[in-house]
Specification:
With 226 residues, this protein is mainly beta. The protein has a single domain, classed as Beta Barrel (Porin). Helix content is 2%, strand content 64%. The chain has 1 helix and 13 strands, in the order H-E-E-E-E-E-E-E-E-E-E-E-E-E. It has one helix at residues 4-8, and strands at residues 18-27, 32-42, 46-57, 60-76, 81-92, 106-118, 121-132, 137-148, 154-164, 172-176, 179-184, 187-197, 214-225. Strands 1, 2, 3, 4, 5, 6, 7, 8, 9, 10, 11, 12 and 13 form a 13-stranded antiparallel β-sheet that branches. A hairpin with a 3-residue loop joins strand 2 and strand 3 (46-57).
Length: 226
């Protein structure tokens, strides 16, 4: 769910650092569980990040999705670290076995500014070119945030993607996943909302999917940080 990146904004990382977590989400609207693994590793040139989601329903695994990215640290600025980044996204669904590709293979590249500070909030922002296979070149803007609630074990974190859209009559898609969590040592429990518009992944059997419509899908989760 890309939220290890938000947690890392709260820490000063070194070239030798590696972080890993495992999560289990219960999606009420889809009546499914999602297991997630996230890995971040730093080195002298920058950092690498990977997450993978595996969805399970009563009938078994329904789909999987992953993103992998590499940041190359270029310079430190007065606002934060300036990076060049390259990313790849892909996934598998049951429909892929019938000759279609539901989740498009996507290559992204651009720049990222990390460790931005806005009061108590730490941010990363990215400006990317987005190339879905067999589609026109597009763009994507991403923001990741982490906000500790002062003098409490509660934290507010998440990300938002705003990108060009090749499908339907809507030129732009948006997806956000804010989380509110309680952290105790290496364990966090909380709630998340997947908020989206023109994001085909919002489909559920009960509500279907329509372009131009906003969708909100809540989950509860538990996460363990290694």
């Amino acid at each position: 769910m890309r939220l290890l990146l938000a947690c890392l904004l709260a820490h000063s990382v070194s070239a030798a650092d590696t972080y890993f977590n495992g999560q289990l989400h219960r999606d009420f609207d889809r009546e499914a569980f999602t297991s997630t693994v996230e890995i971040w590793s730093g080195d002298k040139l920058g950092s690498s990040f990977l997450f993978a989601d595996f969805d399970f329903a009563a009938t078994g695994q329904t789909q999987s999705y992953f993103e992998v990215s590499r940041h190359f640290r270029i310079a430190r600025t007065q606002w934060g670290h300036f990076n060049v980044t390259v990313q790849y996204n892909d996934g598998v669904t049951p429909a892929d076995g019938f000759g279609s590709k539901t989740i498009p293979r996507t290559l992204l590249g651009g720049v990222a500014l990390t460790e931005l500070k806005l009061g108590a909030t730490l941010l990363e922002v990215q400006a990317l070119l987005r190339q879905e296979f067999a589609a026109d070149l597009g763009w994507q803007l991403t923001a990741v945030w982490f906000t500790p609630i002062k003098r409490t074990p509660f934290e507010f974190l998440g990300y938002v993607d705003w990108n060009s859209n090749e499908y339907g009559d809507q030129p732009v898609s948006i997806q956000a996943e804010p989380q509110f969590q309680y952290r105790w040592k290496q364990v966090a429990v909380g709630a998340e909302c997947e908020i989206s518009r023109n994001f085909a992944g919002a489909y559920t059997e009960a509500d279907g999917y329509e372009t131009g419509k906003w969708y909100v899908h809540p989950t509860v989760f538990i996460r363990y940080d290694l």
